[in-house]
Fold this sequence. Notes:
The protein is mainly alpha-helical and 235 residues long. It has 2 domains: 17-79, Orthogonal Bundle (Arc Repressor Mutant, subunit A), CATH 1.10.10; 84-234, GntR ligand-binding domain-like (Four Helix Bundle (Hemerythrin (Met), subunit A)), CATH 1.20.120. The protein is 73% helix and 4% strand. The chain has a 3-stranded antiparallel β-sheet with strand order 1-3-2. Strand 2 (69-72) and strand 3 form a beta hairpin. Helix 1 (17-31) packs across helix 3 (53-65), helix 4 (84-108) packs antiparallel against helix 9 and helix 6 runs antiparallel to helix 7 (159-180). The chain is globular, with a radius of gyration of 20 Å. The mean pLDDT is 91.
Amino acid sequence: MREPDNFKIKKVQKLSAEAQTADALRDGIVSGEIPPGTRLTEIRMAEQLGVSRATLRTAFHQLVQEGLIDQIPYTGWAVVSLSAEDSWELYTLRSSLEALGSKLVAAKMADAGQSVAVRAKLDQVFDGLKEACATGSHRKIADADFALHRAIIDLSGHRRLAEQYSRVEQQIRIYIASSDALVPVPEVIIEQHRPLIESLKAGDVDASIRAAVDHTEQEGAKLERHLRELEGADQ
Length: 235
């Protein structure tokens, strides 16, 4: 038997201070604890997080790349605000990405070697959404909602699709939280996802694509209208 020390593998590295800072800020923004539009002062944030301004600035730049923070010339930094145009761009993009993901996942159900594991994962994430809705916690619901959609992308087995989704996934998380907040009762969120999960488990490719597109575009249009109304009121 070959000894483990013969393999050339990297040692496990602890997360850098910059990565931990970015994680803390990302969590605060996505959860809504740091509201959209909040000005982020380097001195205050560095003191609050217990890091240097250089470390904080590196984390800020990372979140700029993820679309969570805007760098304002000569002014500083601010958490992005989701506009009606942002909402439209995100839900139309999601519609295309998730339609492809759903198509590929549904097609896998025809393969007996893959269908059991795929069905089990779909049940897991749908049950997770139900459990989150039962708590009434907006944060838990949004997290479980995103986890369900992310699972479909991952189950597709399409590496480049997953990479493209990852580029905007933090913005999608904010979008989902904003969209879910407009739903009057959590049970509605469960029913919004049921046709998608059922069509995927049934292996119905056409129905899965329609369910993915309909869910994303219908709820996206509601959020877009809501944001346009707010923007109109501010003028």
